[in-house]
Model the fold of this input.
Amino acid sequence: MTPAAASPPSEAPRHLPGQRVGVLLPLPLGGTYDYRVPDDTALADGDFVTVPLGARKATGVVWGKGQGSVPEAKMKDVFARLDCPSMPEVCRRFIDWVARYTLSAPGAVLKMAMSVPDALNPPKPVSAYALNPKAEGFRMTKARERVLKVLAEGPPRPVTELALEAGTGPGVVRGLADAGAIIPVQLPDRATGLEASPDWQKPGPDLSSDQARAAEKLQEGTERGGFGVVLLEGVPGSGKTEVYFQAVAEALKHGGQVLVLLPEIALSAQWLTRFKERFGAPPGVWHSDLTAAQRRVTWRAVAEGRTRVVVGARSALFLPFPDLALIVADEEHDPSFKQEDGVIYNARDMAVVRAQLGGFPIVLASATPSLETVLNARDGRYQTLLLPDRHAGASLPEIDVIDMRKEETPSQCWLSPRLRESLVETFAGGEQAMLFLNRRGYAPLTLCQTCGHRMQCPRCIAWLVEHRLGGRLLCHHCGYTAVPPARCPECKTEESFAACGPGVERLAEEVETVFPGIRYRIAASDTVTSPRAAADLVRRIEDHDIDLVIGTQIITKGYHFPLLTLVGAVDADLGLTGGDLRAAERTYQLLYQLAGRAGRAERPGRVLLQTYMPEHPVMQALIAGDRETFLEAEAESRRQTGMPPFGRLAALIVSGLDEAAVDRTARDLGRAGPTGDGVTVLGPAPAPFALLRGRHRRRLLLKTAKETNLQAVLRDWLGRVKVARKVRVQTDVDPYSFL
Ligand code: ADP
Ligand code: ZN
Done:
């Protein structure tokens, strides 16, 4: 996967009045539409413009000369150029590249880059609050104190931002306003705290010799510029973040913008705090939980080059950086970098492309790099920087398995006697523990004890998960909810339902029985729903207000809690089932990351994995701390089967409301499938979720040799089949999910 020969950046070509220009609209259409440049206007490639589209007005981007898509007589004038920085040439090339690679309409990719239409108009003044120096005699609370501290340390800000930074609700800020402690001021939109630039001159911590060596290499690469991929590999707690902060500083020093991609950025309060401490100012933040105002301000500030560092989720790749000079993809192996709907792409891979097109370095950081990345590093395509030890001599935790076949765990209980004992010891020692179970809710399955009926989602082929705290049954695939029925819908027996298997809520119930008085919190995506809730949870753990965290995978990432010394995986086998190509690799990564939460400071950590498969290579690798052997075996089996990264895969997902039509299209695609050397088509087969959100789904999998031009094969194939109306065919190049 390398971008087509990157053409050197050029001055954007200008288009004069009367000339034909192509305009790309953020819509899933074939290509650009031609418009005429109006009198008294000169347009350049990348300009944002409004144009007539049928009876509507649409906003798009000037995308080169007109291609003759509209006959002269029918061609309409561009309405106007918007008062907004043009989209940089490299961003436009990136959009075209992503569209070609993913077989998406360029307009669909552009849509991701134009996700904030409001930002294209000049900013309006916003209401903010400033400290009232004369205020006195109002009631003080902890939350109010935090808000005032935030204001004392920074410029006036709008209510939502103040609340967010102080880790409280907007009501607290309004309360302070009512009490006269803060006063309203009008700010031009731009002055919303983003203009404080991170200070690269602020000294970082003293680095260990390993860290310093890695940091120097990164700095050199950043100073030199030019494309290159560096794998920064280090055990959890080795200081990868500190090290890549040095590269960030270097890029800033040379006037570049920086993008740090982080999975679960919305929950990364600790990362933000560290960044602010290191650079004296917060970065711009980009993820889907921002308010419309935050998105508008950030998008514009990035486009105008005022925001120098952005930390974001995968969609941040499509921000219009004019001076991007460094990307860091932290936790590069993380599956959440893969976007699964709309334009299906892997942000880690596309970030590498973005760096190549922009001609600058990219850092991939991880304690458990993906097999793809490891092999790229071995082949010398990527440079590797290793941090072999935890910072400050903290030792890696001891990892042990608990063989659940031998443990006598009471029925309807999920904590083995051994894990219970370890928890007792941990709490007795005044330390903290974490229990990991990657299942939200109370129980994954609700079953009628009389007739065996299973509560299923009517729109998906999936069981409904009981959420006892919320008092409902919930489909984790489509969000369908139902109140648990009093009687079985099948046999009509009353109160006959039994919960099968544990979720985090049920585990909490057991904890309450076994450890009365233990202060615990459940951490799952439905209990930690906002950055504020995440920050609050982190603070409570740091302050030791909590003895035990019971959580799903959202707790496995990046956190650093010095008192946390015991980590227990309640069902370590959970990810190993299912036919996923990367099941073993992912389980290894997840459990290793999880283990990395334990014993990060002076107190040594312990990790206990409850498993029914203690001899599984994943468990063996974890116990022995031997990733090499595991990766070797994993690579060998993929090599033999021609699976990625030794071969290439693409999936076609055929879906629609009408099952017969879906089947017909899937069969037609199957019959028209490409043949030839090293090309195989598997399917059509019902997708594992053959019914999802009310849509019937079939899958076809294309497997080719590594050298094959997969996109050409796909394009040719899709071109040969007529897709029934109302049937959708989605292309997933390099699939991660096999659902
Ligand atoms: P990683 O990203 O590899 O998991 P971090 O960068 O989060 O590791 O470092 C783990 C902890 O050690 C953090 O609290 C960090 O601040 C601290 N740390 C790492 N390197 C240093 C250093 N050179 N000086 C001081 N603290 C450090
Ligand atoms: Zn559903």
